[in-house]
Structure formats: structure tokens, C-alpha cells
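User: Here's a structure from my thesis project, written as C-alpha cells. My advisor, Dr. K., wants to see whether a designed sequence matches the one we expressed. Can you design one independently, without my sequence as a hint?
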């Protein structure tokens, strides 16, 4: 794997330029003498967590954003934005947001009808963990929702077009054109009689870890123009630690948005966190 893929991109961002313009990744590689056939685009552009970010970009305090395609063009576009404060601009770090943390225990009867299906599959997907958190009442309680107000959740992926603004301190305004966005779960529920739409981004595996903020904001940008003006849309980060004794749900509810809000990637701010432990045995 080439180590210095972004050397030229870093050099092109001078000290007084804080972001780049969108460019076709394949064209960028070609003009810098790099063989695009040997380079996995997703490995460099699809950032899920801080550990995925290219070391050269980390060293130079630069975040990379995947920006879909363009009409009559094959391939993926990308752009870079500088970190102006710290890496919390573009990432949620578990060790930060879940410390301190309110912890609760939720006991369930795994042999009862609602939960049997979760016991016969050896490895649950992240969407299955969301459904488990809903069926146990963990998410309903964590989000302070009115009793029995949660709708049937939907999940899916699609190609969406929207504008991406990485930072409230930058003038960058990029087009994300027909790029794939995956939504782990979306459902509605009421809180004190007020309807909200919740978008869940779920991650399982090691804890603590981190989450790139655009993994929450891209789904918001994908659907926000399709919802009524009076409904708030709330991103929620769900980290799941499936260990030998328990399933631990770490839940971070983020700031809610309305249809006419000016949305930036760094607008993703955690407002409340809580953790639930579901023991695997009585």
C-alpha cells in the first residue's frame, strides 16, 4: 500500500488555505503518478473511525470527505478540510463522550418470544443490535420517549445528493452528488408529545473506539428535506460491546436539527449519554 498518497494534496493546501476543492480521486492519483489500479479507493476515502484516517492526513491535521460522483463521470470525488480546533471537530471519541457515564442494567428473559430470534444467530449485525435495543426498551428509555410511541424502524441505503459543509468556521460548501449513504435505523417517536425522527448510527466491536461525525450527518442530510418542518431530526450514536457476559449499549444522543437549520459536520454535538448492560444469563 503506498504510504504517501496524499503528499501532493497536503502540499497544495498552503498555510492560509484551509480546505480543498472536490476532485475525482482517480484523476488526483493520475496527475501525481500513482497507479489507481493498485489503490483501494474505499480504504483511503471511506472513514468510519479515527483509526481509518490516513497517517499522513493525521500528521497534517486534515480530514478527508467522500463526495459521491458527478454526472457523466465514473469514480469517487473527495475533498480535504483542516482541523481548526482539535479532532473533536470531525470525530466522536468514546473515551471522551462516555466519560463520565450513567450506567443501568436491563434484565430480559432471553427465552421469551420477543428475544428468541436474537439467541439463535451466532453473530448479530449492527442493525440487529439496534432492533434488540428497541425491543428491550433500551432506546425508548434512553431517549426519554413517551410510552409505546416508537414506530417500526426502517433501514436501508441509497444514493443521495446534498451539500456538505465540513466546519462552521470554514467557507467550504461541497456537492455530494449521488453518493451512497447507509442508514442503520430510522424511526419516529414522541417526547412529551412532540414528534421526533431519530437516525441511529450503530457500531459494534471494540470499545472504546471513535466515530466520524459525517457518519451521522450524511444520513441527516439525506432525508432532512423530506420531513415536515415541525419535526425535529435527532442523530444518535449507538456503540455496542458484545462480550462474553453482557451486551453493553452505549448511547449518545446528539443535538437535534430542523429542516431550515444550517448544517455543518461539526454541528454534530453530543447532548446526553447513557449506558445499558443487558446480561446474557439471569
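Assistant: Designed independently from the structure alone:
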Amino acid at each position: 500500500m503506498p504510504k504517501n498518497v496524499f503528499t501532493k494534496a497536503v502540499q497544495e493546501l498552503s498555510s492560509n488555505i484551509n480546505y480543498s476543492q472536490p476532485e475525482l480521486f482517480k484523476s488526483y492519483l493520475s496527475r501525481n503518478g500513482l497507479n489507481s489500479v493498485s489503490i483501494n479507493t474505499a480504504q483511503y476515502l471511506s472513514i468510519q473511525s479515527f483509526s481509518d484516517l490516513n497517517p499522513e492526513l493525521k500528521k497534517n491535521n486534515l480530514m478527508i470527505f467522500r463526495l459521491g460522483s458527478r454526472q457523466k463521470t465514473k469514480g469517487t470525488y473527495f475533498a480535504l478540510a483542516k482541523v481548526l480546533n482539535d479532532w473533536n471537530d470531525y470525530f466522536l471519541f468514546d473515551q471522551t463522550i462516555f466519560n463520565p457515564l450513567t450506567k443501568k442494567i436491563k434484565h430480559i428473559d432471553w427465552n421469551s418470544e420477543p428475544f428468541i430470534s436474537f439467541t439463535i444467530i451466532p453473530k448479530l449485525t449492527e442493525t440487529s443490535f439496534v432492533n434488540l435495543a428497541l425491543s428491550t426498551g433500551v432506546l425508548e428509555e434512553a431517549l426519554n420517549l413517551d410510552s409505546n410511541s416508537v414506530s417500526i424502524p426502517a433501514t436501508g441505503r441509497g444514493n443521495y445528493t446534498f451539500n456538505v459543509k465540513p466546519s462552521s468556521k470554514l467557507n467550504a460548501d461541497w456537492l455530494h452528488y449521488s453518493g451512497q449513504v447507509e442508514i442503520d435505523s430510522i424511526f419516529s417517536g414522541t417526547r412529551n408529545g412532540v414528534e421526533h425522527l431519530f437516525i441511529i448510527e450503530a457500531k459494534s466491536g471494540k470499545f472504546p473506539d471513535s466515530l466520524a461525525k459525517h457518519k451521522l450527518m450524511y444520513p441527516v442530510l439525506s432525508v432532512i428535506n423530506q420531513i415536515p418542518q415541525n419535526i425535529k431530526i435527532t442523530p444518535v450514536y449507538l456503540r455496542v460491546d458484545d462480550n462474553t457476559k453482557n451486551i453493553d449499549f452505549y448511547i449518545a444522543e446528539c443535538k437535534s436539527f430542523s429542516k431550515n437549520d444550517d448544517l455543518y459536520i461539526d454541528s454534530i454535538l453530543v447532548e446526553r449519554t447513557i449506558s445499558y448492560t443487558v446480561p446474557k444469563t439471569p
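When you compare it with your expressed construct, this may help: The chain is about 20% helix and 35% strand.
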